[in-house]
Design a protein that fits this description.
This protein is of the alpha/beta class. The chain is built from 9 helices and 5 strands, in the order βαβαααβααβααβα. Strands 2-3-1-4-5 form a 5-stranded parallel beta sheet, with helices on both faces. The radius of gyration is 18 Å and the shape is globular. The N and C termini lie close together (11 Å).
Amino acid sequence: MMISFSGLDGAGKSTQIDLLKSRLERDGAKVRVIWARGGYTPGFEFIKNSIRLIFKKSLPLSGKSAERQAVINNPTVRGIWLAISILDLMLIWGIYARVLRILGFIVIFDRYTKDTLLDFRYNFPESNVESGYLWRSLVRFCPQPDDSLLFWVPVKTSIERSLAKKEPFSDDAETLQWRFSAYMDKNIFPKEEHFRIDGQLDIVTIAEDVHSKILPSLRRKVIIC
């Protein structure tokens, strides 16, 4: 079984993933959580660090900066960056996740294809990533989750929670508002495909909603198998 968690930063995804994982493991299931964000996976970080070693001071450091943005804005660099990011995600979501499923693991995606598509749309609006061959191949190649959960909170709440957690690279209010609008867009995240959860509710209530959605689906899948 595969489950995806999507939504705005600070909406409670990580907390609920941990609670669901613990619940499933208590029931005897093998669970693996996969966190992936295009351009920020361990494999991609290894590639970036290797390039920095080769070019040394000619490349900007990780994190948000004007120097880094200037490099990314170069069309050639941007194209290579996106291509490597997408190929990297194909390996993680398309191959590694499938291997885990074959081995009997329940796979939980902390962020999945549409979350990364929003990242690419916002950071590279001129690239029209979703119309490209690589992105379309990624969508076709990656498995469809059995259940998809979408967590949301108002922008103000997201900011407050990010500050409380001392997030080093949190988005500003304008970016969060853009993301919030995208997550609430039914054309991008249709209600029939994504179970929406109000992250403002208390943790126990949210956990009950998540488990009531996931556990029956899991039992049906076990019976069918």
